[in-house]
Protein backbone atom coordinates (compact mmCIF):
# COMPACT_ATOMS: atom_id res chain seq x y z
CA UNK A 1 0.00 0.00 0.00
CA UNK A 2 1.52 3.25 -1.09
CA UNK A 3 0.90 6.54 0.67
CA UNK A 4 -2.75 7.57 0.11
CA UNK A 5 -3.10 11.36 0.15
CA UNK A 6 -6.01 13.36 1.47
CA UNK A 7 -7.96 15.71 -0.82
CA UNK A 8 -6.19 18.96 -1.66
CA UNK A 9 -6.48 21.59 1.04
CA UNK A 10 -5.27 24.94 -0.31
CA UNK A 11 -5.43 26.27 3.23
CA UNK A 12 -2.10 24.63 3.94
CA UNK A 13 -0.31 27.49 2.22
CA UNK A 14 1.44 28.38 -1.04
CA UNK A 15 2.45 24.81 -1.86
CA UNK A 16 -1.17 23.68 -1.52
CA UNK A 17 -2.32 26.50 -3.79
CA UNK A 18 0.37 25.61 -6.33
CA UNK A 19 -0.70 21.98 -6.35
CA UNK A 20 -4.36 22.89 -6.75
CA UNK A 21 -3.54 25.05 -9.78
CA UNK A 22 -1.54 22.20 -11.30
CA UNK A 23 -4.52 19.90 -11.00
CA UNK A 24 -7.03 22.48 -12.26
CA UNK A 25 -4.97 23.23 -15.38
CA UNK A 26 -4.47 19.51 -16.02
CA UNK A 27 -8.18 18.71 -15.63
CA UNK A 28 -9.31 21.75 -17.64
CA UNK A 29 -6.98 20.58 -20.41
CA UNK A 30 -8.45 17.06 -20.10
CA UNK A 31 -5.00 15.57 -19.62
CA UNK A 32 -4.33 12.43 -17.60
CA UNK A 33 -1.83 12.21 -14.77
CA UNK A 34 0.16 9.77 -16.87
CA UNK A 35 0.38 12.16 -19.83
CA UNK A 36 1.47 15.10 -17.68
CA UNK A 37 3.94 12.87 -15.84
CA UNK A 38 5.56 11.92 -19.16
CA UNK A 39 5.88 15.58 -20.15
CA UNK A 40 7.40 16.49 -16.77
CA UNK A 41 9.76 13.53 -16.67
CA UNK A 42 8.29 12.03 -13.49
CA UNK A 43 5.97 9.12 -12.77
CA UNK A 44 2.25 9.60 -12.19
CA UNK A 45 2.47 9.02 -8.43
CA UNK A 46 5.01 11.85 -8.12
CA UNK A 47 2.80 14.26 -10.07
CA UNK A 48 -0.16 13.31 -7.86
CA UNK A 49 1.93 14.21 -4.83
CA UNK A 50 2.92 17.52 -6.39
CA UNK A 51 -0.75 18.33 -6.88
CA UNK A 52 -1.62 17.44 -3.31
CA UNK A 53 1.29 19.31 -1.73
CA UNK A 54 2.71 16.07 -0.40
CA UNK A 55 6.05 16.37 -2.15
CA UNK A 56 8.29 19.35 -2.83
CA UNK A 57 8.21 20.70 -6.37
CA UNK A 58 11.62 20.22 -8.06
CA UNK A 59 12.98 23.34 -9.80
CA UNK A 60 12.77 21.76 -13.27
CA UNK A 61 8.98 21.36 -13.07
CA UNK A 62 7.68 24.99 -13.26
CA UNK A 63 9.10 25.82 -16.73
CA UNK A 64 7.72 22.53 -18.07
CA UNK A 65 4.30 23.37 -16.64
CA UNK A 66 4.33 26.80 -18.29
CA UNK A 67 5.24 25.22 -21.62
CA UNK A 68 2.65 22.45 -21.31
CA UNK A 69 -0.26 24.69 -20.30
CA UNK A 70 0.78 27.83 -22.20
CA UNK A 71 0.83 29.94 -19.03
CA UNK A 72 3.74 32.22 -19.86
CA UNK A 73 5.82 32.41 -16.69
CA UNK A 74 3.00 31.92 -14.18
CA UNK A 75 4.17 28.64 -12.67
CA UNK A 76 7.78 29.87 -12.60
CA UNK A 77 6.76 33.06 -10.82
CA UNK A 78 4.63 31.19 -8.30
CA UNK A 79 7.52 28.84 -7.61
CA UNK A 80 9.32 31.69 -5.83
CA UNK A 81 6.36 31.91 -3.46
CA UNK A 82 6.82 28.26 -2.54
CA UNK A 83 10.55 28.70 -1.95
CA UNK A 84 9.88 31.67 0.34
CA UNK A 85 7.17 29.91 2.35
CA UNK A 86 8.44 29.43 5.92
CA UNK A 87 5.69 27.07 6.97
CA UNK A 88 4.34 24.91 4.14
CA UNK A 89 1.90 22.15 5.11
CA UNK A 90 4.71 20.03 6.43
CA UNK A 91 3.10 19.08 9.72
CA UNK A 92 0.02 17.81 7.92
CA UNK A 93 2.28 15.88 5.55
CA UNK A 94 4.18 14.32 8.45
CA UNK A 95 0.95 13.43 10.30
CA UNK A 96 -0.50 11.81 7.17
CA UNK A 97 2.63 9.77 6.60
CA UNK A 98 2.77 8.73 10.28
CA UNK A 99 -0.86 7.60 10.20
CA UNK A 100 -0.17 5.20 7.31
CA UNK A 101 3.23 3.93 8.45
CA UNK A 102 3.72 0.40 9.72
CA UNK A 103 7.15 1.22 11.16
CA UNK A 104 8.50 4.51 12.52
CA UNK A 105 12.05 5.11 13.71
CA UNK A 106 13.07 8.44 15.22
CA UNK A 107 16.39 9.92 16.25
CA UNK A 108 15.89 12.99 18.47
CA UNK A 109 18.96 15.11 19.34
CA UNK A 110 17.25 18.04 21.09
CA UNK A 111 13.82 17.28 22.56
CA UNK A 112 11.46 14.36 23.12
CA UNK A 113 9.80 13.39 19.79
CA UNK A 114 6.29 14.67 19.15
CA UNK A 115 4.67 11.22 19.34
CA UNK A 116 5.99 10.83 22.89
CA UNK A 117 5.39 14.33 24.27
CA UNK A 118 3.07 15.05 27.18
CA UNK A 119 0.58 17.91 26.63
CA UNK A 120 2.45 20.24 29.01
CA UNK A 121 5.81 19.46 27.42
CA UNK A 122 4.39 19.97 23.91
CA UNK A 123 2.81 23.27 24.89
CA UNK A 124 6.02 24.53 26.51
CA UNK A 125 7.94 23.77 23.31
CA UNK A 126 5.40 25.65 21.23
CA UNK A 127 5.60 28.65 23.58
CA UNK A 128 9.40 28.63 23.50
CA UNK A 129 9.39 28.32 19.70
CA UNK A 130 7.54 31.65 19.35
CA UNK A 131 5.81 30.48 16.17
CA UNK A 132 2.30 31.19 17.45
CA UNK A 133 1.00 34.57 18.53
CA UNK A 134 -1.96 33.83 20.80
CA UNK A 135 -2.83 31.39 23.56
CA UNK A 136 -5.64 29.98 21.41
CA UNK A 137 -3.22 29.25 18.58
CA UNK A 138 -0.82 27.56 20.98
CA UNK A 139 -3.64 25.52 22.54
CA UNK A 140 -4.88 24.40 19.11
CA UNK A 141 -1.37 23.45 18.00
CA UNK A 142 -0.86 21.51 21.23
CA UNK A 143 -4.09 19.57 20.74
CA UNK A 144 -3.14 18.75 17.16
CA UNK A 145 0.29 17.51 18.19
CA UNK A 146 -1.05 15.36 21.02
CA UNK A 147 -3.84 13.99 18.81
CA UNK A 148 -1.20 12.48 16.51
CA UNK A 149 -0.18 10.17 19.34
CA UNK A 150 -3.39 8.14 19.07
CA UNK A 151 -1.75 6.08 16.34
CA UNK A 152 0.47 4.45 19.00
CA UNK A 153 -2.57 3.15 20.92
CA UNK A 154 -4.86 2.18 18.03
CA UNK A 155 -5.72 -1.47 17.31
CA UNK A 156 -2.98 -1.80 14.69
CA UNK A 157 -0.19 0.52 15.88
CA UNK A 158 3.04 0.88 13.94
CA UNK A 159 6.25 -0.55 15.33
CA UNK A 160 7.76 2.56 16.91
CA UNK A 161 11.35 3.04 18.00
CA UNK A 162 13.14 6.15 19.19
CA UNK A 163 16.70 7.00 20.11
CA UNK A 164 17.05 10.11 22.26
CA UNK A 165 20.32 11.92 22.66
CA UNK A 166 21.24 11.99 26.35
CA UNK A 167 21.08 15.79 26.25
CA UNK A 168 17.30 15.49 25.81
CA UNK A 169 17.04 14.00 29.30
CA UNK A 170 18.74 16.96 30.97
CA UNK A 171 17.17 19.87 29.09
CA UNK A 172 14.51 21.72 31.10
CA UNK A 173 11.42 22.35 28.98
CA UNK A 174 8.74 24.51 30.58
CA UNK A 175 9.62 23.72 34.18
CA UNK A 176 11.28 21.05 36.29
CA UNK A 177 7.85 19.54 36.97
CA UNK A 178 6.96 19.43 33.27
CA UNK A 179 10.30 17.84 32.41
CA UNK A 180 10.03 15.30 35.23
CA UNK A 181 6.55 14.24 34.13
CA UNK A 182 7.71 14.00 30.53
CA UNK A 183 10.59 11.70 31.42
CA UNK A 184 8.34 9.61 33.65
CA UNK A 185 5.88 9.15 30.79
CA UNK A 186 8.61 7.55 28.68
CA UNK A 187 9.25 4.65 31.05
CA UNK A 188 6.11 2.60 30.25
CA UNK A 189 7.02 2.75 26.56
CA UNK A 190 10.72 1.96 26.80
CA UNK A 191 10.32 -1.72 25.92
CA UNK A 192 6.89 -2.97 24.83
CA UNK A 193 5.55 -5.10 22.00
CA UNK A 194 5.12 -2.03 19.82
CA UNK A 195 7.55 0.57 21.21
CA UNK A 196 11.21 0.78 22.16
CA UNK A 197 13.15 3.76 23.45
CA UNK A 198 16.93 4.00 23.72
CA UNK A 199 19.25 6.76 24.86
CA UNK A 200 22.48 7.70 23.09
CA UNK A 201 25.01 8.59 25.82
CA UNK A 202 27.08 11.73 25.37
CA UNK A 203 30.15 9.64 26.12
CA UNK A 204 29.65 7.67 22.88
CA UNK A 205 30.46 10.76 20.85
CA UNK A 206 29.14 11.58 17.40
CA UNK A 207 27.32 9.75 14.62
CA UNK A 208 25.86 10.61 11.17
CA UNK A 209 22.43 11.70 12.48
CA UNK A 210 23.59 14.35 14.94
CA UNK A 211 22.60 17.24 12.68
CA UNK A 212 18.88 17.18 13.47
CA UNK A 213 15.78 15.11 14.06
CA UNK A 214 15.39 12.19 11.64
CA UNK A 215 12.17 10.21 11.29
CA UNK A 216 12.09 7.11 9.09
CA UNK A 217 8.57 6.09 8.05
CA UNK A 218 7.91 2.77 6.32
CA UNK A 219 4.61 1.98 4.60
CA UNK A 220 3.10 -1.48 4.25
CA UNK A 221 4.55 -1.96 0.75
CA UNK A 222 8.07 -1.40 2.09
CA UNK A 223 8.43 2.14 0.75
CA UNK A 224 10.30 4.30 3.27
CA UNK A 225 10.56 8.07 3.52
CA UNK A 226 12.93 10.09 5.70
CA UNK A 227 11.59 13.17 7.48
CA UNK A 228 14.28 15.69 8.43
CA UNK A 229 13.28 18.34 10.93
CA UNK A 230 14.81 21.55 12.26
CA UNK A 231 13.41 24.09 14.69
CA UNK A 232 11.42 25.85 11.95
CA UNK A 233 11.59 23.49 9.00
CA UNK A 234 10.66 20.02 7.89
CA UNK A 235 11.46 18.12 4.72
CA UNK A 236 10.41 14.73 3.38
CA UNK A 237 13.20 12.86 1.59
CA UNK A 238 12.02 10.20 -0.87
CA UNK A 239 15.19 9.60 -2.88
CA UNK A 240 15.87 5.90 -2.31
CA UNK A 241 19.64 6.22 -2.04
CA UNK A 242 19.39 9.04 0.50
CA UNK A 243 16.75 7.19 2.51
CA UNK A 244 18.86 4.02 2.56
CA UNK A 245 21.86 6.00 3.78
CA UNK A 246 19.86 7.42 6.67
CA UNK A 247 18.26 4.06 7.45
CA UNK A 248 21.71 2.46 7.70
CA UNK A 249 22.87 5.28 9.97
CA UNK A 250 19.80 4.86 12.19
CA UNK A 251 20.31 1.10 12.38
CA UNK A 252 23.93 1.63 13.47
CA UNK A 253 22.85 4.11 16.14
CA UNK A 254 20.28 1.63 17.47
CA UNK A 255 22.84 -1.18 17.54
CA UNK A 256 25.43 0.91 19.42
CA UNK A 257 23.10 2.60 21.90
CA UNK A 258 22.45 1.01 25.31
CA UNK A 259 19.56 -1.44 25.49
CA UNK A 260 16.06 -0.22 26.38
CA UNK A 261 16.54 -1.56 29.91
CA UNK A 262 19.83 0.31 30.33
CA UNK A 263 18.26 3.39 28.76
CA UNK A 264 15.42 3.24 31.29
CA UNK A 265 18.06 3.46 34.01
CA UNK A 266 19.47 6.60 32.40
CA UNK A 267 15.99 8.14 32.24
CA UNK A 268 15.35 7.38 35.91
CA UNK A 269 18.70 8.88 36.87
CA UNK A 270 17.90 12.07 34.94
CA UNK A 271 14.49 12.31 36.62
CA UNK A 272 16.20 12.81 39.97
CA UNK A 273 17.45 16.20 38.75
CA UNK A 274 13.87 17.43 38.32
CA UNK A 275 12.10 15.86 41.28
CA UNK A 276 10.30 18.58 43.25
TrEMBL record:
<protein>
    <recommendedName>
        <fullName>HTH cro/C1-type domain-containing protein</fullName>
    </recommendedName>
</protein>
<dbReference type="GO" id="GO:0003677">
    <property type="term" value="F:DNA binding"/>
</dbReference>
<feature type="domain" description="HTH cro/C1-type">
    <location>
        <begin position="21"/>
        <end position="76"/>
    </location>
</feature>
<dbReference type="Pfam" id="PF19054">
    <property type="entry name" value="DUF5753"/>
</dbReference>
<dbReference type="InterPro" id="IPR010982">
    <property type="entry name" value="Lambda_DNA-bd_dom_sf"/>
</dbReference>
<dbReference type="InterPro" id="IPR001387">
    <property type="entry name" value="Cro/C1-type_HTH"/>
</dbReference>
<dbReference type="Pfam" id="PF13560">
    <property type="entry name" value="HTH_31"/>
</dbReference>
<dbReference type="InterPro" id="IPR043917">
    <property type="entry name" value="DUF5753"/>
</dbReference>
Amino acid sequence: MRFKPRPIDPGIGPRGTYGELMREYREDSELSLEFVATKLGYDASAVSRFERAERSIPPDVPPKLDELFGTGRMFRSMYRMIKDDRHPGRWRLLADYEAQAVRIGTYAPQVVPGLLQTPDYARALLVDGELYGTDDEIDNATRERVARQSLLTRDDPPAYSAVLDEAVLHRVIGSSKTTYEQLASLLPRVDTIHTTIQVWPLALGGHPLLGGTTVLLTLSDGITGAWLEGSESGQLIEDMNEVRRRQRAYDRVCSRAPSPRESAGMIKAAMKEFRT
